[in-house]
Each structure stands twice: as structure tokens, then as C-alpha cells.
Amino acid sequence: MSTQGHKRGFAKRPSNPDDWVRTPSADRGASQTQNEFTARLTVDVTPELRGRIKIAAFRRGLTAADMLRTLLEREFPPGVDDAGSAP
Q1: Is the pTM of this model over 0.70?
Q2: Burial (0-12, 13-18, 19+ Cβ within 10 Å), 39
Q3: Can you tell me the mean pLDDT for 57-73?
Q4: What gap in Å lies between CA 26 and CA 34, rounded to an integer?
Q5: How far is CA 36 from its chain centroid?
Q6: Is 35 within 8 Å of 25 (Cβ atoms)?
Q7: 65-68 — which CB contacts under 8 Å span 24+ positions?
Q8: How confident is the model at residue 42 (pLDDT cuts 50, 70, 90)?
Q9: C-alpha distances in angstroms, 2 versus 5, 8, 58?
Q10: Of 1, 7, 28, 65, which sits most exposed with the smallest number of CB within 10 A?
Q11: Is the pLDDT of residue 28 over 50?
Q12: What is residue 18's three-state secondary structure?
């Protein structure tokens, strides 16, 4: 006979979602420092564009996420408004 122990759920909901989102995770990528926080961004693209992105990232020796983060940082640098000028 087997005794059933305490069952853990797939994921425990945080008591305060803001604290959970802003808590650094130990399993984040090597390119991030302990003080950096990330937010997930979902963009719908065609399967063909997704494939081109993944191939380009592979050829550059990067992950698609790292390559796109660099592209977005270059396109939207800190301290520049949406008109392209500094405040």
C-alpha cells in the first residue's frame, strides 16, 4: 500500500502579485543581473517571421529573446520619448 503525502499544486499563487512580479528569480538568463526585472511581452507574428527570427538568432549565436531585447533597446533607448527626442 502506498501512502499519499501532501500534494503540491503546479504553481502556488502569490499572496501579493506585485511582490511576485518584482522578485528576482534565480533561474533567469546569464545576461541579466540580479537587480534587473523583466516583463513578458507577447507579439503575434506569422510562422514564417518567427522562423526567420529564430534562424537569425541561431546564426548569431544568440537566443531569439536576447536578440530581440537588443533590437528593442536600440530602437527605444532610455530617456527618449516617442517622437525620438530627449525630454
Answers
A1: no
A2: exposed
A3: 94
A4: 8
A5: 11
A6: no
A7: 65/29, 66/29, 66/31
A8: very high
A9: 9, 17, 48
A10: 1
A11: no
A12: helix
